[in-house]
Specification:
The protein is an alpha/beta fold and 258 residues long. Helices cover 35% and strands 15% of the residues. The strands form three sheets. Strands 3-2-1-4-5 form a five-stranded parallel sheet, sandwiched between helices. The protein is elongated.
C-alpha cells in the first residue's frame, strides 16, 4: 500500500494531472484483492456483499456506498476503475469504457498461482508493486490425510482451491474425486481422515441443506477427529485469504499427534 501511495505522490510532484483514484469493486472476490493493497481513501465502494459475514471489510466501510454489476449504480459512483468479479461486467464493461472508466476482471482461480496472477493484474492496472506469495510447501514424511467439510456437507477434490491449500500446507486431500461435490453424509462418515477442515460453519451461508452442522453422525465424527475451522471470509473464492487459510491448515497439521 505504501508503494502505491509513493507512486501517486511522485506523479503529483511532477506536475502531472492525475485524477484521484476512485476504485469500486462489485464482488467479494474483488473486495479481497482491493483491500489487500489499495489505500482505503482511494476505495470509492466495495461490493454489495461487503457487509455480510463472509466479508473481511473493516467497519469503516459499513456506511460507505456499495457497488454491484449495475451500470447506473456504477456510473453514479464516478469511479476511475471498476474491479469486476469472475463472470461479471459482460454488459457493463463496454459502457464504462466508453465513458472513460477503466475496468479490470478478476479471474476465477483454484490455486496460489491464480491468486498471484490476479494480484499482478490489479497491481499493473493501478501502478503499484506487489510481493507475490512463494511456494513454501512443507514436506512431511507421512503427510496426513485431510478432509474438507462445508456447512452443507460439501467437500472438494483435486482442481479446487481447497485442495491447493491442503497440498500447500503439507497435507494430502483424502478426497480424490475431481472438483466440488456433496457426497451422502453416510459416505463422509465412512472416510477416516487424520484432520478435518470445516468452513462456513460459524460465519457462512445459511442454507436449508446444512448436514455438516446437523447430521448426528457427522457431528460425532467431528468430536472424535482433530479438526480446524477456516473462516468462510478467507476464501469465498481463491483470493489473498488463501495464504492465510493455508497457514491455519499447516498449524493444525503440526499439532496432530505424532
Amino acid at each position: 500500500m505504501r508503494d502505491y501511495a509513493l507512486i501517486f505522490s511522485a506523479l503529483l510532484l511532477m506536475g502531472l494531472d492525475v485524477p484521484t483514484p476512485r476504485i469500486a469493486s462489485t464482488s467479494l472476490c474483488g473486495d479481497a484483492y482491493v483491500l489487500e493493497k489499495i489505500p482505503h481513501h482511494h476505495i470509492a465502494a466495495l461490493s454489495w456483499q461487503s457487509g455480510s459475514a463472509l466479508s473481511t471489510a473493516p467497519l469503516e466501510f459499513e456506511p460507505r456506498p456499495k457497488a454491484s454489476d449495475d451500470i447506473e449504480r456504477l456510473l453514479a459512483l464516478n469511479p476511475t476503475l471498476v474491479v469486476f468479479g469472475p463472470g461479471e461486467g459482460i454488459k457493463s464493461k463496454p459502457i464504462l469504457e466508453k465513458a472513460g472508466i477503466e475496468t479490470l476482471q478478476i479471474d476465477w482461480g483454484e490455486n496460489l498461482e491464480d491468486v498471484n496472477a490476479n494480484r499482478l493484474k490489479l497491481a499493473n492496472s493501478v501502478g503499484y508493486t506487489v510481493k507475490l506469495e512463494a511456494d513454501n510447501t512443507p514436506i512431511f514424511i507421512n503427510p496426513p490425510q485431510v478432509l474438507y467439510l462445508s456447512r452443507a456437507g460439501g467437500t472438494a477434490g483435486p482442481g479446487t482451491y481447497v485442495d491447493a491449500a491442503i497440498e500447500a500446507a503439507g497435507g494430502l486431500n483424502i478426497i480424490k474425486t475431481q472438483g466440488w461435490h456433496t457426497p451422502d453424509p453416510e459416505t463422509l462418515v465412512g472416510i477416516k481422515p487424520d484432520l478435518i477442515i470445516t468452513s462456513f460453519f460459524e460465519h457462512g451461508y445459511e442454507s436449508i441443506n446444512a448436514s455438516g452442522t446437523r447430521h448426528r453422525l457427522l457431528q460425532e465424527k467431528l468430536k472424535t477427529t482433530p479438526h480446524v475451522n477456516i473462516p468462510g471470509a478467507l476464501w469465498p473464492c481463491a483470493g489473498p485469504g488463501l495464504s492465510t487459510a493455508t497457514r491455519i491448515i499447516n498449524s493444525a497439521i503440526n499439532e496432530l499427534p505424532k
